[in-house]
Every structure is written in C-alpha cells, then in structure tokens.
From TrEMBL:
Any GO BP: signal transduction
Mapped WD repeat ranges: 177-218, 219-262, 263-304, 316-348, 349-378
Keyword Hydrolase on entry: no
Species per Swiss-Prot/TrEMBL record: Gambusia affinis
Protein name: Uncharacterized protein
Amino acid sequence: MCDQTFMAATFGPCDSCSKASPLMNIYIKTEAINYCSFCVEMMACQGLQKGETLASLKKESENLKKKLEEERGKLNDVELHQMAEKVEAVAALSLKTRRVLKGHGNKVLCMDWCKDKRRLVSSSQEHGITLPCTWVMACAYAPSGCAVACGGLDNKCSVVPLSLDRNENLAAKKKSVAMHTNYVSGCSFTNSDMQLLTSSGDGTCALWDVESGQLLQSFHGHTADVLSLDLAPSETGNTFVSGGCDMKANVWDMRSGQNIQSFESHESDINCVKYYPSGDAFATASDDATCRFYDLRADREVAVYQKDSIIFGASSVDFSLSGRLLFSGYNDYTINIWDVLKGTRVSILFGHENRISRVRVSPDGTALCSASWDNSLRSHNVSHVDGKVHQGTEQVDSL
C-alpha cells in the first residue's frame, strides 16, 4: 500500500556459509533459517534433474498457470451481473454520521467491533493502553469481549485483558503471544479466546496458542508482505483468506497449513480481504483502484467494482449483513458503496479528511465505522440497507 510499506533488513552470519552478509529469512517446513542470497540460489539448484534450470522450471510453471486459467475460462458460462439483471435494484440508502470519535494523536490504522455491538477497539487506544510500538497496525477484539489483541512494527502481537477498572494498569498485564520476523499487519482471534491468527510483512501467516504463545501452524505461500487476513465466518470453519503485496489472495486450511486456493487477478497490492457472510466467497481491496469478488465454489473472480473516475487505491472492504452491499474505503478520503450483484456504485460517503484505513460493519448490521489517517473514526447510522429498515442505533450512540 502506498506510503505504508515497510522493509526490514537483517545483516549477520549466514546459517550455511557463516559469512557476514545481508540475509534472507526463509522457512524449511516450520524452521526459520537465515541464508545469504548465494546460498539461497545454491539451495534452489539442489535436486534439479539433468537438463533442468531455474529458468526452465519458471517457464514450465507459467505455462501450467496459463493452462489452468484456460480451463477455468471454459467453465465461465455466465457473468454475475448478467444473472442479476432481473434482480430488483437496491433502494435508496440513508447513512448519517452519528459520531466523530477523536482521541488519537496520529493516524488511525485499524479498528474492530466487539461482539456486544457497543464497543470498539482502534489501534491501541482502547482503555488508553500504551505499547512500545508507535505504529499499531493490527487490532482485534476477542470473541468474549474480555481481551484485545494488537501488533505492529515491533514484529509482535500482544493480548491485553480488559477491565472495568479504568485505573488498572492494563499495560502490565499485556502478554506477548506472537513473534514474526517483520511487522504484524493483521490479527484475528479464531472462534475462541485461546487461538490467534496473525499476518506479517515477513510473507507468512501463523496460528498461535494464546495461553502458551506456542506456534501451532505456519502458512507459507505468499512471496511478499501479507497485508490482511480474514477468518471464514462459520463457527466450524477451518479456513481463512489472506492478501498481500504479491497481488495474490490465498485461501488456507488451518488444520494442514496448506494453501488450498489462490487468485491472482489484481494488478497491485491487495490491502484488505473480507469473507462474504455465507463464507462461499470473499472480496478484496487493492492499490489498483479496484475491489474484486471471488466465488470459492466457482474458483474464480466473478465481479470487479471500479469506475474510470476512481483513480486512488482501495484500502478496506466489508459487507452489509445480508451481503448485498459492499462498503469500500479509498485513499481519496471517500467510502464507496457497491451493489454486490449488479456491480454498480449506489452511494458515496464523504467526511474524512485523509485516506480511509478501515471500514467495518457492526455485528448486527446497524452501524458502519470508518477509521482514517485524519486521526479520527466516524460511526455511520445504517438506517436503510437491502430494502430493510433496521432499528437499534443505540449501539452507535453509546460509543
């Protein structure tokens, strides 16, 4: 993502040749090793068959990828917008800004709703928790609402138990759970407080045991920074999706650590991934100024949300409760609302004075919260969505 890219350089003795060199952190199964570029190339050449070269293998890989896309194309019998031609258009929307939430002294990079729909956490600001890292890029509420996880440029993800006593020193109770070799870009609890998923600039995702801090499973498949992840919405689901600077969106099996599906149609960094409410599809937001919709059963992209007038990157996406609307935040300070089925833009929200970093719909669908680099969050009352009138905006008013 523009203006939000970080690089960590490591210099030291190579684990293979012992020479002091710039090092590349790579993984053999789950073991991290640090090799210089020469030793990495030598290792890659080991096991090549007679007549094989790295160049020939790369060419073969590209040919296989092209054949796979051709086979996918043969199954594309109809487009999503064609199927939706007879579907009634989305009724007029009425989204009003209910509160402007201030308190941060710098860019708000992340936020998450609590399941009780009355509280939210934004970066490290909830309960005034102080962290040693200036840029807290990821935060998440635990399912119970009794703890939050947060991480950033310190390469760690910590869990902090919450208390009703505002005088309690919560920072002293902070527990480091995850440790990556580069910045932590995203975090999410699984369906319990006991396991935590993280994504990182080191190109990996990882599953951790919160109590012991033990690495339960690592996920290797991205070739650049992983910027976002999202857990499948089913309570029994064992998959999650990730997106990153290699322009790929990968679907993972948490039990095996295997990459089970991969999608590569974006032309720039994928800043955000978000599952469709049913869990059968997901959306992405990218620096190429588009949002895209992928159907897991069809194993392909089925919709692109874009307009010629949109030239700035998309930073974040989330769905309405029914899945009919897609909310997307952009670097031009706006939030665009798309009709998921028809692929058309139905509304634009203004108000922020800097780029949008995160948009999140409340668990009951009655409110939308947006976080921005203008140091604030805005809660929007979603009073008319998907043709249904929602009551209960007290969740927003209580923030």
